[in-house]
Amino acid sequence: MLDTSSLTERLQAHCRQFSVQVIGQARCALSVEETQKLGGIKEAVVREVILLGDGVPWVYARSVLPISMCEGAGAAFDGLGSQPLGKILFNDARFVRAPFELGRVTAPSELHTNWVNDAHMPLWGRRSVFHFEQQRLMVAEIFLPASPAYKHVVQGIHESI
């Protein structure tokens, strides 16, 4: 979870077919915390996707992107569609990632309820801000139960039994 390389590329290495399912993308008002982390902007484009490996949901991702980076001529993320955001972030040296914040999602959150059968199993996630010239964007990734990120955890439990 702390690997700073492209999550997209790491997930692609674990499957034959990687895909991005866009849940939604729209202009939204930001929370106070998001506004602070993103340098005072109060509205942004929020993009929510599921990253799938061989058709299996592995990661829920929520990106908060400055409007100027999503709309208009020359906007870095204009027309992104079902393309992975990571292809842009990790192929342009102008994007600089700040350290991760780690967290877990537990019941009764909607995200947890939608993806986890066991109320006692947390979902782990990370969030980071990327700096791009004078702008900032934020990416949060929650690792769903079938994610390869949990493979070593499950193996470790089985090996200790």
List keywords for this structure.
single chain; 161 residues; alpha+beta; Chorismate lyase; seven-stranded antiparallel sheet; 7 strands; 37% strand; disordered C terminus
Largest sheet: 7 strands, antiparallel
Question: Into how many domains do the coordinates divide?
Answer: 1
Portion in strands: 35-45%
Low-confidence spans: 154-161
Structural class: alpha+beta
What's the tally of helices? 5
What is the CATH superfamily label? Chorismate lyase-like
Rg measurement, Å:
16 Å
Q: Quaternary state, please?
A: single chain
**Cα separation of the termini:** 24 Å
CATH topology: Chorismate lyase
Fraction in helix? 10-25%
The total beta strand count reads: 7
Question: What CATH architecture do you see?
Answer: 3-Layer(aba) Sandwich
| CATH C-level class | Alpha Beta
Arithmetic mean of pLDDT = 86
Structure description:
By secondary structure, the chain is of the alpha+beta class. It has one domain: Chorismate lyase, CATH 3.40.1410.10. It is 20% helix and 37% strand. The protein is built from five helices and seven strands. It has helices spanning 7-12, 32-37, 86-89, 110-115, 151-160; strands at residues 18-29, 43-53, 56-65, 95-97, 101-105, 123-132, 135-143. Strands 1, 2, 3, 4, 5, 6 and 7 form a seven-stranded antiparallel beta sheet that branches. A hairpin with a 2-residue loop joins β2 and β3. The two termini are 24 Å apart. The relative contact order is 0.19. Mean pLDDT is 86; it is low at 154-161.
